[in-house]
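Archive entry: two folds, one per protein. Generate the first.
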Amino acid sequence: MSDTVATPPAAATRAAPARRPPSVAAAGWARGRVETKMFFREKDAVVFTFAFPIVMLVIFGSIFQGRLGGGAVTVSQLYTAGLIGAGVMAASFQNLGIGIAGDRDDGTLKRLAGTPLPRSSYFIGKIVSVLIVAAVEVAILLAIGVFAYDLTLPSDMANWVTFAWVFVLGITGCSLLGVAVSSLPRSAKSASAVISLPFVVLQFISGVFIPFTQMPEWLTRIAAVFPLKWMCQGFRSVFLGDAGAALETTGSYELDRVALVLAAWVAGGLILCLTTFRWKSRRDG
């Protein structure tokens, strides 16, 4: 009797198809969801990055009353437009600077660098989180300005286009600066002081709380070096219109210079990121 060898089914001999790794964009989007959840779970991060501009708007808008620019603009409306710029910078520069410094200090960056996750996906995740936080913050500030302080939203598309490019250039430049400045703190504990203090000072000299017409010239010259002054100026042009132009140092919003300076900070911020960013903390060498 001849022996017969059973032939295994073709399906059994066929190798299981290899799973394709997720794309950089897909991994970045997934990382962005994680970053956003982690942000809202950190009370300190929410207060310093998210709630601070809102609280300051309510406080300053309630304390300081009156009209500026020939009576066409209220002080509260001026604060609303300026704090939108401060809110965008808080969500990008401050949030990223402190957050990445913490990730570096606790070893998160070191661990991520040893995983299959593309390094660019980490930054995509951070950007997704920044955009979500900034969008929500701007929406809340606008809602407070409209319903509490009679801020008028622009009705023409040109102003919204201006808002869009100021927002995009501003948040891009400030995000790159946040990534770069994250290398300055020696530890996560010192990150808040190292990054938050200069940001608070910038707000007072960049026209967020005090009109430029009431500040010494040497302070306005310092403020003109940094992006916050130009972001606030661009947002004031959108929400205050021609009536608010008289409050600017030159009597004009100078939107061409706003675009030029913000674009320069995008380029400069990218160069700083490429030359200063570290994946390891100082104690790791």
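Generate the second and append.
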Amino acid sequence: MSDEEHQYEAKRGPETYPQQANAIRRNGYIVIQNRPCKVVEVLASKTGNYGHAQCHFVAIDIFTGEKFEDTVPSSYNCDVPRVYHTDYQLIDISEDGFIILLADDGSTKDDIKLPTDEALRFQIKDEFDEGKDLTVSVMSAMGEEKVCGLKDLNRK
């Protein structure tokens, strides 16, 4: 992919911000193929035949777990997703697999499904059925959301 094509591909909106490729580190975030990803490996090459030092990113989609790779000149800007973590109190679990959550401001949220991770899904169901007061951590980025954690409010 030529330099012009890579620069043209970047589409910034309020969900992302630019960051120079050589500043992105392992365990950081990057957008690859319009998907928010967590960086698991960064390989930097020195200036060579291509005219620029290159950064090779290996990253995992934070919502689907799919693996992505991209190589970018180190001086170019990459899109970085704005990733938010919000805690909600779990009110109910509907029969169709959606969870009903209570935000700090008193509003309810009912458009998030139970997680696809089997262990977390069963933990949420089991502890809710036991009558525990639970807080669910929801990760959101680029218009998508997913349950990523669970805490018992009564556990000290």
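Annotation attached to the second fold: DSSP finds two helices and eleven strands in the chain. Residues 118-129 form the longest helix (12 residues).
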